[in-house]
Specification:
With about 220 residues, the chain is of the alpha/beta class. Helix content is about 40%, strand content about 20%.
């Protein structure tokens, strides 16, 4: 699939016109919202990806992300000109998938959007087999995980980490391995991002048997 729909929530009119032009050159459909209230009315549209500014008039990006995550695991890229570390950490806690600090080059956003779309919607065909791990049924193609009749609700990033680790059951994967396998080799943020996602996965999938190896990383131990 190449005709993805991307929603941008940004109140800087010049910036948003530039970003929209760059994204549309890739063949993607782009819709723009200049304030949080309007964006909230379109959460149920379920685009393929959101590009979401944190500082918005009225409802801010945090509130929009909370609403998105209460209804869908659609990928979200946060942008902000504020405290980079704080915004990145809060964004990850709430379920964002990537973060860009302003000012950034429009081409950098295009690259990150493309990689995120490919990872979420097009994964490598050799990794798409249905797998059963510690009672969980994992369906990479439909990106669904179930335990019996219960569907496990995960964010896109949480799901990506589970898919990565279940490809390597009983193998130790360092934080850097996980970052490169899920976030991409060009990710330069804190390794704490991995710890935050792992913590949330453990709460949602307690039977996954996800171990922490001191100084080493993480692994799923088969039962």
């Amino acid at each position: 699939m190449s005709e993805y729909t991307i929603y941008i929530v940004e109140d800087e009119e010049h910036l948003v016109s530039v970003l929209k032009a760059y994204l549309e050159k890739e063949g993607w459909l782009v819709k723009v919202f200049h304030d949080g209230e309007t964006a909230l009315r379109h959460v149920d549209d379920r685009p393929h990806l959101w590009v979401l500014d944190i500082m918005l008039p009225g409802v801010d990006g945090y509130e929009i992300l909370k609403t998105i995550r209460s209804k869908t695991d659609t990928p979200v890229i946060f942008t902000s000109a504020r405290d980079q570390d704080l915004d990145r950490i809060i964004g990850l806690e709430l379920g964002s998938d990537d973060y860009l600090s302003k000012p950034f080059l429009p081409k950098e956003l295009v690259i990150r959007v493309r990689k995120l779309l490919e990872r979420v919607y097009e994964g490598p065909k050799t990794k798409l087999q249905v797998r059963s791990v510690n009672g969980y049924q994992i369906h990479p193609i439909t990106r669904k995980i179930s335990l019996g009749d219960e569907l496990i609700e995960l964010t896109a990033k949480e799901l990506d980490v589970v898919l990565f680790l279940t490809e390597h059951v009983d193998e130790i994967k360092s934080r850097r391995d996980i970052l490169e396998g899920v976030w991409g080799s060009d990710y330069f943020g804190s390794e704490r991002a991995v710890d935050d996602v792992i913590r949330r996965i453990r709460k949602k999938m307690p039977r996954l048997n996800l171990e922490t190896l001191y100084g080493g990383g993480y692994r799923i131990v088969s039962s």
